[in-house]
Amino acid sequence: MYAIVDVETTGGKYNEEGITEIAIYKYDGNEIVDHLISLVNPEKPIQPFVQKLTGINNAMLVNAPKFYELAKRIIEITNGCFLVAHNAEFDYRMIRNEFSRLGYDFYAQTIDTVRLAQKLLPNQEAYSLGKLVRSLGIPIADRHRASGDALATLKLFRYLLERDTEREILQSVIKSERTNELEPRIFDAIQKCPSAVGVFFFHDKNGQIIHAGKSSNIRKKVNQYFLGKEPWNNFLRENTYEVTYERTGSELIADLKLLEFLETTTLKYVHKPRKSQPASWSFKIEDQTIVHTISSRKQNQAAQYFSGASDANKYVRAHFSHLLNFKTQIVINDKIVFENEVVQSEEQDAKLAELEKANLHKRDILVVGQGRTYSERSFIRLKNNELLGYGFFDLNFQIANLDKIEKNTVPLIHAPARVLLIHRFLRRQKFAKTIDLPS
């Protein structure tokens, strides 16, 4: 059974959007057996460009039901169904977010008609819903309204089912249904896991941990472990009696907690990660020369850590090798590998500020990320490149209060390898939010 879904939203910041309209067609593979179509009062304004796109305005939603009034019906119509949508990740995320705000963990297996079409119809010029269905001769009405888009998605899905000669869709259904063949204790363990970010632990009949992991979707990852065909998967199926977990909200916190556990555990079956010394980068300014020192050995005042000296070298060359009004020198393990002459300019202040900001040894920062709930945010505290711990705060409270931060901080054991995870995250996530704390 399939639930073909489309939602329209208010637009706005990621994970802060609200649903303005929802359409669900329950489809048994032959015909529509049930449906739900409704406007939804999101209790927040719609972005102007979204109003133009969908034709839905704030006035239309004043008397529309709020999501909690539709929640029970949505659960009823989707129960036991695959959730099918065009760009399913978006629609599923929106529905899960709305349920999360109500304190309910909504879960469903999804089928994405975008990916399905890309696999079964590889030569299409475009895979957006409108362009794709028009190219296939599938009629579409009420474009950018939930009912029209959901109905077009249903017709597209039926079209793809008919052309699924290798039974890709049915195989995914059968694979999912294999979960029901697992022993009741395994099935129960999977069902108890949330579809949320965090760390998880497999326990044997004596309660001892035999495996640990982390995922952006705990339930999905645990399910994959139990359904795998390798000897390790067989071992887990035979020996797991319970799965415990901890929500972290932030994938970075999950990484840090898992790494700390793996590096400190003495448990028999849990494999320790290979120990390695991160490469460190530091710099000093002398007259009009900036000397960047990259070392495979430990430096007490490193600006940042890297996986290896070559990664550090690439980063420094890309960002600071031609610093305005300065001569630059890069030294790796006591050997000069790069040197240039003074670059003349009057804009050196901005570039120097950028260099100083990259020196995390001189900053006390919070790396802010997603929380465990919609109204919460997480933080990781890094002071002078020492990992102090992590915590959570409510969006309604100020985070810059040092006393509150320290009281809410859960300690983590400092190690360069863990600090490296944070540095790597900050370098890759250009829009990562950080807060500098007063010294």
UniProtKB/TrEMBL annotation:
GIY-YIG domain residues: 195-277
A GO cellular-component term linked to this record: cytosol
Sample GO molecular function, one term: DNA binding
Single Gene Ontology BP annotation: DNA replication proofreading
InterPro entries: DnaQ (IPR006054), GIY-YIG_endonuc (IPR000305), GIY-YIG_endonuc_sf (IPR035901), GIY-YIG_UvrC_Cho (IPR047296), Ribonucl_H (IPR013520), RNaseH-like_sf (IPR012337), RNaseH_sf (IPR036397)
Pfam families: RNase_T
Subunit structure, interactors included: DNA polymerase III contains a core (composed of alpha, epsilon and theta chains) that associates with a tau subunit. This core dimerizes to form the POLIII' complex. PolIII' associates with the gamma complex (composed of gamma, delta, delta', psi and chi chains) and with the beta chain to form the complete DNA polymerase III complex.
Protein role: DNA polymerase III is a complex, multichain enzyme responsible for most of the replicative synthesis in bacteria. The epsilon subunit contain the editing function and is a proofreading 3'-5' exonuclease.
Record-given protein name: GIY-YIG domain-containing protein
Species of origin: Flavobacterium aurantiibacter
